[in-house]
Amino acid sequence: MAREDLESRAAKNRGETSYSSAYVIEETDAYWTSWLIPVFVVANVAVFLVSMYINNCPKHNYRFHDKCVARFLGRFSFQPLGENPLLGPSSSTLEKLGALEWNRVVHEHQQWRLITFRVGIIYLLSGFGGSVLSSLFIRNSISVGASGALFGLLGAMFSELITNWTIYTNKAAALLTLLVIVIINLAIGILPHVDNFAHIGGFLTGCLAGFILLPRPQFGWIERRNLPADVRLKSKYKAYQYVLWLISLILLIAGFTVGLVMLLRGVNANEHCHWCHYLSCVPTDRWRCD
Known about the structure:
Blueprint: H1 2-30, H2 36-55, H3 57-60, H4 91-96, H5 102-106, H6 121-137, H7 147-163, H8 171-188, H9 196-213, H10 219-222, H11 239-264
Helix pairs in contact: 6-7, 6-9, 6-11, 7-8, 7-9, 9-11
């Protein structure tokens, strides 16, 4: 009897231990936090601080009669609003740090300016696509920033929603929310000093890259190992996903090829599309676009 009590007590303890272990794992998963987005934020802030440190407005502001903005920040103060109304460094500093500039890309063969540091294939491709389209249309000013790559992530979200349409529950709400965000941000791009061509190029590139890289397999294919042997397996992807993948791959390769050939030959895309400049800036009584 004593032995049975000990065995039952040991079995009970083993059961409690097993339950406690499962509970701890569940709690650990519940408190998992995202780290990728904070890393992006910290990296962007760090790059901005480095650019402002190199800029040193109080020392190098000799071309403008206006004073630096927020002079209490010392060498981190911003350029006069007459030069940079977006509160940042001077154009010469941005050019020194690798800003996109048509003349340097085409005539000085500095094609590396088309590529900046990006994390993730879609982020990288979108930044590159936005830079190419921007260089084709904007020739008399420099362009800098990661907005093209960020718009690429929006484009990838859109294509991911379309190509995986059947797995979502609130399809209409998700699509409407995404479209509103994209339309508002593209509308802001028609203001002066905003490179909307980079936004459009990044969005289109990200959209095509999303169709290529973000399709999800069918549930039946994922669970194929748990199905009986006589059950017919489904294809990994649906037919329309294969079609979207193929079309997007062709368009992405063709777009990059044509864009780079035109860019390196010095083609001015504005001569082939006389109204396209309105996509980046619409002149009004309050501002000019030149």
